[in-house]
Structures are given as C-alpha cells and as structure tokens.
Amino acid sequence: MSEFRRTLRTFGRVLRTRYPSFLFGLPLRAGEIPIFNYHDVEGPELRGDLEFLAANGYRTLTLEEFLERRGVSRNGREVLLTFDDARASVASVALPLLQSFGAHAVLFVPTYWMGEIDRRSPEAALFMSWNDVRRCRSSGVFSVECHAHRHALVHTSPQLVAFTSPSMRARYDVYDWPMRDAGSQPQLGYPQLGTPVYAAAPLLSADRCYLESIDVARTCQAHVEAEGGAKFFDSRHAYRVLRSLHDRGMARHRGRYMDRASLRKLIASEFEQSWDAFARQLGSRPNCFAFPWMVGSMTALRMAREIGAVAVFGCALDYRYERRRDLPVRVFGRLKSDWLRFLPGEHRARLTAVLGRKVTTFASHQNIAH
To answer: Looking at the structure, do residues 223 and 245 belong to the same domain, yes or no?
Structure first.
C-alpha cells in the first residue's frame, strides 16, 4: 500500500509540472534559456550531450552571464548546465570533459557532505572533498554555489513506510534516507539494518518534523543484528516480525513532534551552516542556492533572501514559481539532464521514441518516504 501511495504522489507531481514546449518537438520559446541538472555523471552520456550542444550551436553560459540576462536569452541558443550534490564523478569525469569542450557550468555544493562527514566512511567516497571543490572553481569551468548543508529529509509523521533492508540500501541513494533522531546529533546517510522509516518530506519544505522513538529504532536494529544481520531478511516473515516489534515498542515509547521554534531553527541552520562553510573553505559567500528535490516553503525562500541569495534554483516541478511576482527571491526551474537532447537541432530526440523507456525509468525510481 505504501508503494502505491508513493506512486500516486509522484504522478501527482508530474501532472502539476509545466514542461517547456521544446520537449514536445516545438521550437524554443522566445528568450528561453533552458537549465539542465546533472547529479552523478557518466562520461559517455555527458560527452554525448556536449557534442549535441556544440554541433547545434548552443552556448553554455556562465552563472554570471545567466544572472546578467535575468534568465532571458539574447542569442537564441543558450543553456545553463548545473551539477548538484558535488559527487566525486563531477571532479573526475565532468570537469575534464567540460574543459575539453570549453563549456561552463554551475556546481551546487551540500556543505555537510564535503566537511562534516567522516572521510573514512563508505558515504565519503561518493562525494568530492573541499580540495576537489576548490579545483573545480579555480578551473574557470565551474561557478560554485550552495545546495544546502545537510540536503536532508525529515520524518513528518509516525506513518511507518518501511524497515531498512539490504535490498533497499542497494536501491536507494544516500540522500533518500530521512534524517534520524539519535540524541545529541541527528544521523544522516544509510541507516542501520532494521531501522524504521516513516513518512518524510524535504526539510526545507516541511511544516512539521516527527522525532521518532530512539528506543523503538534500537529494538528493531538489535533484533536484526542478533538474527544474522542481512540474512535475517531472507525470511519471508522478516517484515511481519519487525512490524510486531515496532508496534509493541510504540505502545510504550512513542515519538514526538518538534516544536515550531525548533523546526524553524533547524531550517535556518541549513542556510547558516552552509554559508559559514563557504566562508571558511572558499573565502567567499554563495550568491545562489539550489533547493534539494524542489523549492521549499515561503519561510525557506525568505531565509534564502535574508542570508544573501540573489536567485534560487529548483526542479521541473518549480516552473510554476517563475512568473510569480510575490516571491521574496527569484526562482528558476530546471530540467533533468536526460531532456537536453530534446532541444531543437540535428539528431534531436523525439518524445514518442523514448516515452516507454521514460515511463519505465520513472516507475522504478520512486522515493522511499516522500
């Protein structure tokens, strides 16, 4: 049932999204500068995108040029390339490829994963170091901007969605796991096997935060460890056993909701800690902010403006914000990089030719909890 609810929510997002007309084989809208978003990078795909842009006369703008134009093209064929998450592959794969094509891009950095994460942990290998970030910036290829601090989801209710299993850890990205209450410091990244996962939302969009019971989580984790760890999940009764343990524990040790003042402080810390990290590590403050997943609440938008962001970037769902005049800061929507070759030009991709593959990919990439 939870998988069905997640699918319905995701289809709802698709229906609320305004996609640019060029995806459907039409010309670019007058003055349009498409913004494309990459995460982890694979060389052949990025090289193909850059070859397509070069062959069809598209210019990759610097962030400074994009902001000077206020998002409106002067020459008809201009794009902005953005890379989120500061994955290790951006430094090792994207940087040399972009250099070889004389291209420009924006790198949005989540500062927790650059500095506070234990560099000996398995998660650390997924991300750049601050030295990598400095190398990208000094190359002249990348403008380096902010992608929040923790890039976190938070639990929003005690609605149980899943228990962490080996197959789920293999399927879902490090960011897909909601932040967990662990007493003095919240935990991020891959949870211990058996950890309960509850309904969640991006921290910067959340209007409440549910702090789960640490006792219940530890009971479930301890049972899995005592029963062989990953082997425990070979049993077809694994979920039922954990659900029974969980429900009995919740009868004695329920979680609680964070009070509004504490939640506001937590949201503010995403901006404050990332801005401070930029000042320490790069000697400057960001000008722009890319929201993880989607543009956040009006509270988060005001905080972005107050700390100094001149523009914020979201995803395709956020195109609806672009024309609003009541926002505290300018918002730009972005498209996934796999739509880039739908731009007008030779060897342009056709939606009818890839629609089946897109639907299959979409159906296999549901979020765990939000």
So the answer is: yes
